[in-house]
């Protein structure tokens, strides 16, 4: 009983309890609000249609643009469409081949090709595969109607019996081929962006908390802060080396050079350290609550589990302000290819500069206030 009383006298006990309760409360509130109405925003997904057939294909393309419940854009060439897909403008490309009408007329069979971007959230990839099957079925119906009308016009003079007979020739005229763009082998690689974002941020959050405790013991605000940045830089470099080693050990193939991956991971971890450190510098121990909120916000808004387009505008904006989005996008580029690693690095560096400036301003204000208090006491 005495031991229990001693526990209850120490503030750390209550901090631990508050953190545990905060995790539950924050994750419930953030995740349930972030994913509320996601299915209703499926119409924000982007699909490109590339029609290379001027006959029946034109009608099919027109039907797709009119009937698909997504943002559908017609592109003139596959090269341009794939370029836009690599820039994450499209989740899928529907290609209508040049021989579409000819194959239907002469062979009775043809194929649509669906190009699905694998450098995307798991939900988006699964959704697009389902859409491909649905499009195939809908196009089959359109082609069947087209064939019936065309043949019926020629056979009308032969009597209604002949017209009825053509209906049996119009089933399943269109097949489909799914081409996975920016693909990577193995199911586990799909989890790499989420895993690295989660591990890096949680590691940074705990490290910033522990360094903050040490900083209070060491004292000396300005030099103290600079010393922490030296430690942060060294650990970021070391962690990047370990990350590359683990990816090699687990045979995760990368589409970028080892140097680029090393630089990127070091910047990602330093960005997370800068953000978590800023909250602790601004709010002290209460900064951990802000870090927990930040963790939850970044997991839901980074585009790893649910694509950005299906989130509300609020969470899309939050995602653009926090480093996890650029970390996830960068790792999609590293693992799957496509995208632009340089743009994500620039965004992360910008976040680092902003968070470092905010932290330094907070330290400066704190230093000035302490100086004023000291003068007042001496007076």
From TrEMBL:
Signal peptide segment: none
Domain of life the protein comes from: Bacteria
Family matches, as InterPro entries: ABC2_TM (IPR013525), T7SS_ABC-Transporter (IPR051328)
ABC-2 type transporter transmembrane domain ranges (all copies): 25-361
Predominant cellular place of this UniProt entry's protein: membrane
Residue spans crossing the bilayer: 12-35, 187-209, 229-247, 259-280, 286-306, 318-339, 345-369
Localization annotation: Membrane
Keywords of the record: Membrane, Transmembrane, Transmembrane helix
Protein name as annotated: ABC transporter permease
